[in-house]
Amino acid sequence: TIYNLGSINLDHVYRVRHFVRPGETLSSSGYRALLGGKGANQSIALARAGAEVRHIGAIGEADAWILQTLIEAGVETSAIARRQEASGHAIIQVTREAENAILLYPGANHSLTRSQIEQALVRGGSGDWLLLQNETNGLSDAMDLATERGVRVAFNPAPMVSRDIAPLLDRVDLLIVNEGEAMDLTGASTVAAAEARLHNDYPRLRILLTLGRDGVVYVTPEGRYRAPAFSVDAVDTTAAGDTFIGFCLADLAAGQAPEMALRRASAAAALCVTRAGAASAIPTLAEVETFLAS
Ligand code: ADP
């Protein structure tokens, strides 16, 4: 089982001529409500990649349809709590020039309790992992429980709001960061320097460093692996990182060779960027295999 402690957000996307100005009432010419949040996206990617995934999170009472969407994607939702408060959500204004302005309210994502995590994270087998991002509370408690119970920890510290998450790295087996996060986390001014610093400071840490169109680097105590990105026509890079993480962790947890895990995850992320949207842009394993065979 892969336990994913993560955010669940509602993205309210409004099409506007320009961003709302102070005191102005502006009519929007289009509206869509989408499921998002790095946590939910990564759970969906894990499930589409074929992993058994239990999401640990929280939503507001009024939003039961979110559970249905996750269940349909193959995610186990028994550890998603229902709260008397708003689900995490974002008000997103998008202009014709594709610029956006985002107002985020974390809501129920910040209401996770230690006992909820304790109940959800059962002691399990050798393929068990706990995955976390940085959009909920409870990270330190969850890492402690996982460590006690012999569950390995994968951490994607996104969004990277401050460097005070660095002390958590002692409990992490697999760190997954993009270029900006790697540099923010280490204070290094280049990705190469960030990689060297992380490898030096945490010699046993496995590091997945995603480099956008430049592909990915995977640094482990046993060796360093590299995989190029696939060349595709990018339409929308939203959720590319989440797709990569879900597919890569699904394969690594299942004991696949790193080369295979990186290749499949790169293909999944490439397919994701050819489609608009977040959760809905995440491909299935069958689509990834068809893409790789073509
Ligand atoms: P994030 O979305 O978290 O910033 P990256 O931009 O590093 O993460 O993207 C994650 C992975 O998605 C990359 O390692 C790559 O495999 C794939 N990817 C991202 N952008 C593209 C692109 N334009 N074309 C093909 N693959 C891409």
TrEMBL record:
Keywords: ATP-binding, Carbohydrate metabolism, Cytoplasm, Kinase, Magnesium, Metal-binding, Nucleotide-binding, Potassium, Transferase. ATP binds at residues 178, 210-215, 241-242. Requires a divalent cation, most likely magnesium in vivo, as an electrophilic catalyst to aid phosphoryl group transfer. It is the chelate of the metal and the nucleotide that is the actual substrate. Its main location: cytoplasm. Residues 5-284 form the Carbohydrate kinase PfkB domain. It comes from the Bacteria. InterPro entries: PfkB_dom, Ribo/fructo_kinase, Ribokinase, Ribokinase-like. Pfam families: PfkB. Substrate binds at residues 9-11, 37-41, 135, 242. Its cofactor is Mg(2+). The active site is at residue 242. It catalyses: D-ribose + ATP = D-ribose 5-phosphate + ADP + H(+). SUPFAM superfamilies: Ribokinase-like. Activated by a monovalent cation that binds near, but not in, the active site. The most likely occupant of the site in vivo is potassium. Ion binding induces a conformational change that may alter substrate affinity. The keyword Lipoprotein does not apply. It is found in: Cytoplasm. Pathway: Carbohydrate metabolism; D-ribose degradation; D-ribose 5-phosphate from beta-D-ribopyranose: step 2/2. Its EC number is 2.7.1.15. K(+) binds at residues 236, 238, 272, 275, 277. Belongs to the carbohydrate kinase PfkB family. Ribokinase subfamily. Catalyzes the phosphorylation of ribose at O-5 in a reaction requiring ATP and magnesium. The resulting D-ribose-5-phosphate can then be used either for sythesis of nucleotides, histidine, and tryptophan, or as a component of the pentose phosphate pathway. Homodimer. This is Ribokinase. It comes from Marinobacter halodurans. The lineage of its organism: Bacteria, Pseudomonadati, Pseudomonadota, Gammaproteobacteria, Pseudomonadales. The gene is rbsK.
